[in-house]
Structures are given as structure tokens and as C-alpha cells.
UniProtKB/TrEMBL annotation:
GN (gene name): yieH
Gene Ontology MF annotations: phosphoglycolate phosphatase activity
Lineage per the UniProt record: Bacteria, Pseudomonadati, Pseudomonadota, Alphaproteobacteria, Rhodobacterales
Pathway: Organic acid metabolism; glycolate biosynthesis; glycolate from 2-phosphoglycolate: step 1/1
Protein name from the UniProt record: phosphoglycolate phosphatase
Keywords of the record: Hydrolase
Amino acid sequence: MTPKLVIFDCDGVVVDSEILTNSFLRDEMAAHGLDLPLEQIMGLFVGGTISGVAVQARDMGATLPADWVETFYPRICEVLARGTPMIAGIVGVLERLEQAGIPYSIGSNGRHMKMRTTLGQHPELASRFTTNVFAATDVARPKPAPDLFLHAAQAMGHAPAHCVVIEDSPTGARAAQAAGMRCFGYAPEGDGAKLVAEGAHVFRSMDDLPALLAL
């Protein structure tokens, strides 16, 4: 069934920022006493909020300063501003949605500051994602709660049952399921088992997404 609204996660779905962000996180954690490999950092933190990262890291022994969350964002934005690629094929997906007359938006656990930094590097994205970008700070509870996706659907004028979510994290897939929305899980590497466990239909390439959306 063709959706009436498609809600994309941002990091790892629209922009290829996960390795950059989590490499920075790895160095931050190591500097504060929690030295973990990148793969483990990504397994722990991809899809979460930075506030949630701070809580979990402190529970694991990291000695993060009290203002770490607020100082993190300007510093990670500086890193991302040096160059954050688009996900291969994402512009083609957006063009197909436009041709079909289907609106789209972003629903991300990241903050608006970070999305302005990454999306703003690419005119093809910056011109398409303006007032249709929603962040965890816009709602009471971030993913995996359904609040963000429900807020995006309401703001865009569509019922949850008519929306589809595109995610790359189990946290986001769980939020989509809680919101009553179908979810396609983008897993270009690995088996995507954690996404499947949260009810997502896994796909490997953005080139495959238009057919899955029945465009």
C-alpha cells in the first residue's frame, strides 16, 4: 500500500553521519574513562539521544562533566560541518516521492542544530527539508516512545496508519511500531536482525525503497 506520508530518520538514513558521530563519541568516552571499541559504541548508542547516551555512559563508569551534553552539540557540529555525505540514493527516493505527490518529513532523536549542520551542506536536501523537520526536543519523550512520529504525522496532517517510517536503528523501529506505523529498516551492512526484531521490513539499498513504497 502506498503511504500518504513518509517519515525519515536523519542520521544513517538521509545523511551518512553515524560513523563520524560515533567515532567522536568513542574518543569522548575514552577521554572520560570509558574506553570501548567503535562497534560497541555504535551498538550501545545509535538511535538514542545524547542525553540518554550521557546517562548510560555514566552508569557504565564514564566521568562525564555536568555540562557534557550541552557542550557536546557545538563540538560535534564542528566535526560534521567538515563534511557529512548524503546516503547514496536518498535524493532519488525523494524525487520519486515528489513525482507521486507524497509528502515526506524527518523525525530524528538529534537536535535541530545538528540537522541544520548536516542537511545544510547539501542544497538537494536543504531545499527539501525546511519546516518538515522534527526533533526529539519538539516532544516530551524521544524515541523509542512514539511521540516524535505521532507529532510529525499530526503536523503534516496525516493519520499514523497512513504513514511509513524509514529507520536504521532498533530504537527508531520500536518507536514506529508504538506509533502504529509501518517501518522499513535500512541496513546496508549486517543482517538487520535487530531491526526485524522490532517489526521492521529490512532493505539494503535506497534504490530498493521506491518499490517497497509502491511508487
